[in-house]
Amino acid sequence: MFIIFLALDQISKISIRHLFSHAHSDTLPILGNFFRLTFVENQGAVFGINPQLGQLTNIILLVLHIVAIVIIIFLFRRNTHPLARFSFTLILSGAFGNLIDRIFLGKVTDFLDVEFFNITIGKWHIDRWYVFNIADSCIVVGVILLIIYYLFVENSAKQEEILEKE
Fold it and tell me: Across residues 41-53, what is the average pLDDT?
């Protein structure tokens, strides 16, 4: 599974870079304004976070990627439950996908551009989600599945174990 998600991410990014190298625009509508392919070279992190530190930003993000990957591999090896392992696999494939971009390009290729609900909280407003890629999707889905695992699967197993001991 790891190789499949990683390959899907890398092939899609290569295709997008090739497609937009010949395009006259950085945006291609697929489903009108709701879903577009938008070519973005992201030098920052997830959700538009960019500390604007130049090359130091890339070095910091590289180190954070590597530390996160080591921790995820450690957690993957400790856990034998299929849902947890699948979650870690998704997160790892996403982390490696963005790490490959950051090492070889110095930035991450994003291209999935989705209209989002108009949300306003105080002075903060969002009407389009941040442009993302398949690696980002793998990380988000993996984290959501991991939260579900820890909230519902592991906790219920621990409670059953406690009840059996009593």
Answer: 72
